[in-house]
Each structure stands twice: as C-alpha cells, then as structure tokens.
Amino acid sequence: xxxxVGALEIGGTHVTVGRVDVARSRLDASGxxxxxxxxxxxxxxxxxxxxxxAIAAALPEVDxxxxxxxxPFDYEKGVSQIRGLGxxxxxxxxxxxxxxxRDLGLLHPERIRFLNDAQAFIxxxxxxxxxxxxxxxxxxTLGTGLGSGFVDAGEIVVSGPGVPSEGRLDLVPFRGRAIxxxxxxxxxxxxxxxxVEVAEIARGAREGDKRAAAVFRGFGSALGEFLxxxxxRFAPTCLVFGGSITRAWDLFEGTFRESCPEAARLDxxxxxxxxxxxxxxxxxxxxxxxxxxxx
Length: 295
Prior knowledge:
The protein is α/β, with parallel strands linked by helices. It is built from eight helices and 14 strands. The chain folds into two domains: 134 residues, ATPase, nucleotide binding domain (Nucleotidyltransferase, domain 5); 140 residues, Nucleotidyltransferase, domain 5, CATH 3.30.420. It has a five-stranded mixed sheet with strand order 3-2-1-4-7, with helices on both faces. A five-stranded mixed sheet has the order 10-9-8-13-14, with helices on one face. Helix 1 crosses helix 2, helix 4 packs antiparallel against helix 6 and helix 5 packs across helix 6. The longest helix is centred in the last third of the chain and has 25 residues. The radius of gyration is 19 Å and the shape is globular. The two termini are 20 Å apart.
C-alpha cells in the first residue's frame, strides 16, 4: 500500500504543495502545485492561500504533513516568529499547526510537523537528489534570503564543530555587513542599481548586457569567498544549491569556483537535482521520522 505524506513549502512569493510517496522517495503522480501569494501580506490573505494550497493536496488517507517554512519560527510548536522580513510578517504569532489542522479536518494536529525550509531542501536532496549517497552534505538556498542546511549521515546538524550557530549561515556577517545584503535577490538588484527583478537582470546578462553580467560575476565571487571557510570547517563531500537564483548558475559558477578553491575538492558541487521538489521531500521525511520517534 502506498504511504502518502502531505508536504507544503511556504516561500516569500508562493506556496508549493504535493503528496510524497514515501516508499518511492518522490512525489506521487499528481505532482507539484504552486500557489502565488501575489500581493497578499495581511494575515487572513496569507492564511487563505496557505490553506488553499494544503487542501489541494489533501486526501482522506493523508493524515501526516510536513511543512517547510523560513525562520524565525518555533518549529516544535508550529508558531511563526517572522517579523520585519517582508511579505510573511502577517503570520507573526500565528499557530500554523492549529490553523492547518482545522482547515484540513485533522483530528490530531501533532501530525503536522515543521522544518526550516533550507534544512528541508538539503534533507530532500540527501534522500533523493544530488546529495544522495553522501555522508556529509551542505545545502545553500539562494533567493529572497540565504538559507543553509548541514547533513551528517542523514541527520540535520545545527551545532558543533564546523557549523554556524543554529546551522544558519545567514547569521554570519560578511565584509562588515549582513550576508543577505550581498548574497540574495535584493543584493543582486541593489548591485545592478534597482528597478528590475533578478530574472530580468539574468536575461540581460545572457543577452550581452555587460553591467548585468558583471553583477552576477560579483555575486559568484562573494558567494565563493563567503562559503570557502565553511566548506573547510564542515568538510562535506557535496555542496548543493537551491532557490530561485540558482537558475542563473551559469552566470556565476565561474567566479564562484575561482573564489572558492575548496569547491574543486568536493565530489559534487552543483544546483539541486530536485530544485522545486526537494523541500517537499525533506519536509515529508522529517515528518515521518518525527512521528516514528513519538509513536
């Protein structure tokens, strides 16, 4: 019998949902669906989209859910602590576990489990993607912010030698500034001079815009310089990139590798195999494991 787990990823611009076939380490035949948050920034608007996405993947036999969401967040209680970071501020103080359990008709809210989105990403890639077969792997998500996850023998590592506080590279300053002021979508837009989205800048770079190309070269150089010491400290054999900016890998791979010699020693350094699916896979695996621990 197929064991399906509902999985949801809450991002800054959209919500992604799917059902994970645990036995096969992949989404079921219904695939993945995305729901745009659009201009929704108020509490009820955000919650309506999140619930709509979850309901779209609900089935009577799906009574276990894994939710990947950015921090700060109380992942044990299911309460958002996001404030001052942009679109998801409206969720501050909301108990998403209780809200989703109500909207999904779940009798046992504790069967909804939460995990940091970047950690879910690398866990999913370890389970069924680029990091499969690697004991130690490191994941970095590049988008509205910078996310990170560290895996050792299939377990998320958030402390100890070679790992930043809480496993969060976004808390590590760089060049006297917050790393996300440089390595993020807003960092790319600011370096370009504003007024356009990252996708447009990437398009321009591929079409010969020298200023746009220079922005991505600078981005790659900064990213490599920043990650180099962490690759040395954690010593993974695999580094996987996710997030929307990774779609422009061809524009910054060269300067990244130039400024990060340690990358050449890795068995693999590349974008994700499961760029969109990985956070759902990782969130589902986390839910299964967490439920087993409490059964």
